[in-house]
Amino acid sequence: MVAVAAILLAGVVGAAPASAATRAAGNYVIGLADGVDAAALAARYGVDIDDRYTAALNGFAASLTAAEATALANDRRVSALTADVEVEGFAQADTPTPKTVQADKPPVNAGDGVQTALTGPAVAVIDSGVNPHIDYNLVKAVNCLGTSDERDGNGHGTGVSGYIAAYDNDFGTVGVAPGAPIYSVRVMDAKNKGTLSSVLCGVDWVVANAATYNIKVANMSLGFEGVDDGNCGYSNSDALHQSICKLTSQGVVVVSGAGNGNTDLGRVLPGSYDEVLVATNMADYDGKPGGLAASTCGLATKDDSPWANTNYAVSAADKAHTLAAPGTCPYTTLKGDRFGYI
What we know:
With 342 residues, this protein is α/β, with parallel strands linked by helices. It has helices at residues 2-10, 38-45, 66-73, 156-165, 196-213, 239-249, 316-319; strands at residues 26-32, 49-53, 59-64, 78-83, 86-89, 122-127, 138-143, 182-186, 193-195, 215-220, 222-225, 253-257, 268-269, 276-283, 305-306, 322-326, 331-334, 338-341.
């Protein structure tokens, strides 16, 4: 306590501190200014580093006492001090929709049952993990959880991958980008839950490896409560926002679900970040435009209209980076080389 107080009183010349407010004890993600030695700073405060970030963010995750958290929040070398909150995957279970996602439209022109050679980029799926499947191309899988392994413990990431990139062949389903290479980054557990620190680990891996593997899209069908400060997280000490801005600056498109809370998506991260392309959830019962099909799910939601519980854009800023995509009762890939509705 005495050492922490001394460091706090001494101060450090640099950028404005993350926050001057008193902080509670807990688990945090700490972002640092470029060039700051994370190990040396943590040692000076007597803090044990749980996770280290070096690509998307110069920083670390740690469990802090109230005195340590407050001192770090007032250290001018600290760009972000963010509570390590729980993150949840966005999923809803109903019944069937079409087995293609308008992938027969140009420039994809899929649906003829013949997979053509893909020359496009790869996709990182930051999710519950992705299992190998006969109907997509899983190239590599990594694990950002402190327990278990890289395999999909929930099924959500495997389903998302099929929706993105299932082959155009004569069985199963057809993805939006058939055959796109999938790089799985597991950040959520068997209950489809993770933490901010595990998600940051995933973003950090993508930043470090995007150029090597030609990853141009990162999908994040997950979220937690928060708001966009309009300044890449430097005004409200948001470590994830700072990291995602680093990722998009490398030319990677970050896509997130809007969430299923029937509320303003501006309250949900990472979808509310202006740098993220966010997808609201709509019903599409026949894979065609026009709103003419009857519900195949037993839902009151009409064809080609928003799902009843989807979050939605309210502000002009959020409307500028929001689109609607079929996500109600998706038919896709399941663990065990199976297919079904999730």
